[in-house]
Amino acid sequence: MNRRQYFNKISLYSYEWFKKRLINKDELSAFLSYIDERRKEFKPDPYSLYKKIVTLLYSIGIIFILAGVVYFVAANWQGFHKLVKLAILLFSMASFYSAGFIVHKKFGDSLFLDKLLTFTGTFFFGIALALVGQIYNLHAQSASLFFIWFIPSIIFAFVTEFEPYYALSAILINLSVWFLFFPMSNIWIMLRYNWFKGFSTLIVINLILFFVRTFNKKAKRGISFIFIPYVLIHVYFYFISFRFIAEDIVFVVNFIYLCVICGCFYFLSRHYKSNFLSYYTLIMTIIYLVTKYFEIIIYSGMEYGLDTEFFIVMIIFGVVLIPVSIFLIKRLIPHIKENK
Predict the structure, then answer these.
(1) Do both 134 and 104 map to the same domain?
(2) Which of 66, 149, 158, 212 would you call most buried, defined as having the most Cβ atoms within 10 angstroms of its Cβ?
């Protein structure tokens, strides 16, 4: 935690003390004034920009190396024997891991490069799996591929506590479950008849990731296990809330999603403070309500044969709701910022 984050956290604590009536309003104002004075006295690290530039150059260099290896292999792929292909993939992957290990042994954790090299090796491991699947005529987008890729990613995430590993692990576990229930060969058919099992499993897995990380107060890393599952849970619920997906139990699904939205607002206001998640929940709620409004109009007209005048009135009413929503958002955003 740097000095800026420290001051911000102390300011948040002071508001909690005031809400719990541990300090009065005058004491809160005096304390915040003192914090502001100390914040102005703080001088930023003169080497912070230098460190960011070095980290950026490291990242760009690794990206170019990885792109060069992939381009070389792809350009000469057809001319290689199967054993040569496997040897190239294994050597390239082992090179990234070995380089990361050597850098870690020589410089320790003082450099960002060791974790970046091992992460590149894990990323190249997934590319190698896809190419091996092509060699032996396996499905490159199968659930097993992403799950095998997920295993080293989650192991390195807990060992190194490097944030990109957590993000990659959250994405890979979702992809593996997705392709398990909705393979690319017949995705539209499976979405029609297998949606309940698939989306229920995806939502449960993301809920587990979200709550395990959220209530683990000792964990300093793994913030991706909060943001990515939270975003995907809303996306999945929003997708299955439409009538063409969950036609038989569409009202039950929408009722559950409305309860989830209310629960999210309560959770974010009481247990987990996050401006990003609050804004995202607000945006998804508005998108959901607007699309549900037009969906109700369309299906009501199709089922009950309503007149054209009714559609015009409802559409005008819906258009009027848009500036009203914008006005409410502008009034609500300062309140979110004030309460963090």
Answers:
(1) yes
(2) 149
